[in-house]
Write a structure and sequence with these properties.
By secondary structure, the chain is mostly beta strands. The chain folds into 2 domains: about 200 residues, Protocatechuate 3,4-Dioxygenase, subunit A; about 100 residues, Sandwich (Immunoglobulin-like).
Length: about 325
Amino acid sequence: MVGAAVALPASLPAVGGSEFKKSRIAEANARGNCILIPSETPGPFPLDLDENEFFFRQDITEGVPGVRLRQRVRIIGVDNCEPMANVRVNIWHCDRDGNYSGYGTETGLTYCRGYQFTDANGECEFVTIVPGWYPGRVTHVHFQVYVSTQYSAVSQWTWPHDAVVSAVASHPELYPEGPDPLTPEQDGVFAGGYELQLAGLEWDAEAEEYTSFFEATVEGSGTTGVGHQERRTAAVMELGQNFPNPVATQTTIPFALHQSGQVILTLWSPDGRCVYQKDWPQLGTGPHEVSVNFDQWALVPASYVYQLACVTSSNSERFVAVRRMTAIPR
């Protein structure tokens, strides 16, 4: 888990595809309500994302058929209504036929599941498909916002019924079961209302994909939460935000050690490659900085994650911290 057992990042947002139209971004930024998202049943809970770095990815389709969907998610902290950066967002949903990977006949499969970290604006992005449906449930997505080892929010979102019906009806060859027969009002999970659990859904003809924006407000103050493991990590080391961020050519990653130990700093690209690594067999206490030159390493504009791992000299215990950075065109 973040700050504790994160192993290796694998993939992050903003890889290819068209950007949301500026009007949609403005609309998204303006619609924040700062009201806690209702908790919902986890349903077919995700496979263990904490221990399996494979699910740290943007594109979660694994080639399953369906209409392509680019899903942007924004997380807000209720205490101050500010974006929550560097929190982990897990999502999972069924395929076009209503099946969940990892269960029943789909045991051993891993499609339509993944997680990412939010950026400075509290946002992350997934590439997936418009889900199908199964009896008793409308088309929906499960998600978990992992704020700290002490707190996470679990809920679901759906889309306007007419929009989902249109998306499926426009591509009958991809959805043999046809459009969703239920409306959100008929779904028991959303019986208490779903105003805070409704995402937008629009067709982007140029990119030949649907785009969607969903915003959720969770407990917190606009910063990553603090639980027991986060406090233990902070007693050993602190990983700062790179500066400048966004970065065009060169950036500096600051960190501090409160205990000496073996330290490894790694930078991970959107397609899951470790593109930079620096090792210190033994590093003393105090402040430290690492400069990363994007031209030198031929790194392209995208969202990256950097991870600091420290194995303490005193008891060989491993601590991990993760943050996200954004590279922009020169």
